[in-house]
Amino acid sequence: MMSMNSKQPFSMHPMLHEPKYAPLHSSSEAIRRACLPNPSLQGNIFAGFDETLLQRAEALAAVDIVAQKSHPFKPDATYHTMTTMTSMTCTPTSSSGHLHHPSVLTSHHHPVHHHQGSQGLDGDLLDHLTPGISLGGMAGSDVCSSSHSHAAHMSAINHMQHHHHQQSMNMHQHGLGSHGSLGGSGGDVEPDPRELESFAERFKQRRIKLGVTQADVGSALANLKIPGVGCLSQSTICRFESLTLSHNNMVALKPILEAWLEEAERAQREKMNKPEIFNGGDKKRKRTSIAAPEKRSLEAYFAVQPRPSSEKIAAIAEKLDLKKNVVRVWFCNQRQKQKRMKFSATH
DNA sequence: ATGCATGAGAT
DNA sequence: TCTCATGCATA
């Protein structure tokens, strides 16, 4: 069996193991990415670009760079954080070495579809309000506290074996609408972008109404005891709300956040009934910063060739005086950005 | 809210 | 070595 839908985070017992869980896959997705607007350069068709192109791209990018450039430093450093791990909270991931991510939620691929536009999105920011509610343990937020940096080796919750093919099996495409297809066996979730969009918006609103921050939601997720699901960071919750995640990622996270929301609202209601109770070593990782001029050059290169070879990357790195790894990661992140929902062809 | 990074799994 | 899901650090 392959899973057809999988992703039903719930349905399994609340214990840990459950190594499997179908990863889901939904069916739609890919295509959205296909059409992204190219920043600027016109033809990216030249795939084999060579020095010449490189220079050309750079020149294009250099328009205003002329003067400023020069930053003495060389970024990079990838420092790797940590050295001490002392804590063990449930911190979700760890950068240092441990697993964490539950990719559990991944599904991917949908054959196609997309379209429609709208973008509602909102962007309000109001997240932090402080609540007074502690939602029965849920949003309490601290559970996973993360004060310390990493550590945690136990993120037990997350990870599972999950996915089988992340992107691999995309074959099914019944092309129909968006959804449905997939087998019926499980009921897959709707890959409908519209629905995701509205859910994200409603989610944010209700979350604010509850008085919890994005970070609170992330850590409270662990309290849900959904197999394979642990805490998530503020970043991820924020991205979910602003639709800046891949479509598959949105689809995977939706049921989880939906479950949390219901639980949190339920807990709050409970408290409402009882009026009284609720009143109530590390080395830090340093983030590399790529200066504007270099960034412009990178963008120009990207427009020409989004996936430069290792050699090209090295050449670019040298020209811009950046570490090769920094350049490589920049390209990876840039590609990921294109795939995010917001910008995708979906709209 | 986002930029740069890590790491698991797929290629 | 890439893609993806995620996160820490930061603007």
Instruction: Report, as a whole number of angstroms, the end-to-end distance.
Output: 34 Å
Strand content: under 5%
> What is the H/E order?
HHHHHHHHH
| Global outline | elongated
Rg (C-alpha, Å): 22 Å
The total strand number stands at 0
Low-confidence stretches: 1-49, 63-187
Q: How helix-rich are the residues, as a percent range?
A: 25-40%
Rounded average pLDDT: 61
Number of helices: 9
Biggest sheet details: none
Question: Mind explaining what this structure looks like?
Answer:
This protein has helices at 31-34, 51-61, 193-210, 214-220, 234-241, 247-273, 292-304, 310-320, 324-339. The radius of gyration is 22 Å and the shape is elongated. The protein is mostly helical. The two termini are 34 Å apart. The chain contains nine helices and no strands. 33% of the residues lie in helices and 0% in strands.
Fold topology:
Layout: H1 31-34, H2 51-61, H3 193-210, H4 214-220, H5 234-241, H6 247-273, H7 292-304, H8 310-320, H9 324-339
Helix pairs in contact: 2-7, 3-6, 4-5, 8-9
The protein binds a DNA duplex (11 and 11 nucleotides) through residues 75, 78, 80-81, 92-106, 108, 123, 125, 149-150, 159, 162-168, 232-236, 238-239, 242, 244-246, 248-249, 252, 284-290, 307, 310, 325-326, 328-330, 332-333, 335-336, 339.
